[in-house]
Amino acid sequence: MRNILLSAATVLLGGTTLVGSAHSTELPKGAAHNIVLVHGAFVDQTSWQPVADILKKKGYNVTLVENPLTSLAADVDATKQALAKQDGRTVLVGHSWGGVVITQAGNDPKVSALVYVSAFAPDVGQSLATLAKSGPATEGTAAIHPDEKGNLYIDPKVFPSAVAADLPPQIAESLASHQLPLNHTAFEAPVDTAAWRDKRTFYVISTKDKVIAPEAQKFFASGMKAQTTEVAGSHASLVVHAKEVAAVIEKASLAK
Known about the structure:
Elements: H1 2-12, E1 34-38, H2 49-57, E2 61-65, H3 72-84, E3 90-95, H4 98-105, E4 111-117, H5 128-133, H6 139-142, E5 144-146, E6 151-154, H7 159-163, H8 169-177, E7 182-183, H9 184-188, E8 200-206, H10 214-224, E9 227-231, H11 237-240, H12 242-253
Parallel strand pairs: 1-2, 1-3, 3-4, 4-8, 8-9
Antiparallel strand pairs: 5-6, 6-7
Helix pairs in contact: 2-12, 3-4
């Protein structure tokens, strides 16, 4: 999975070097220095690598959370462990399913702002299943099916067009065949905290998303009174539009 996503990033960012742990610039005065990135279902933490490398090069301390995807509680715990290691104010960012995770985990006092990127944003008592039932199924959500163990996958034949239409076809197809499953219990678990009610919130809307409909993303953003930015990307906009997503995170780092 790591090699697949890094290959995609290299292609889409025009060969930009994706290392950059060294701090090459000084952060703006008053900026939160720490960024914690939470990935969605079906992929791993390297989905955030293009964004992470941009932010690291600018001097941010960036942590990629490795969600086990076995339950909401397990993913929230992984995120809380990452937050516990941060020294000072932190921007917490979630993509897709990761939005559910940061909604539950983001009430940590270190979290100064939340950023949702093409992400679900439940309220207290809502689960991913609840949100899925609240509107018509998209091409992507209609293609989610359980295996015999109850683990959820997106139909590999649908994955490239539904999830990653703006990635190179060979990359999208490879991602489809190397999916990481989301356990069905995570899909059904409601959140009992909505951290966005008490935090400054930002939302990156992907206008060509076929997993979370752009209209649904706008609804989430409006309900949270989030500052919104639109990118003309698919559900994989965190890779395809890494520069724009990183810019929103930088803006969130200055939120008070």
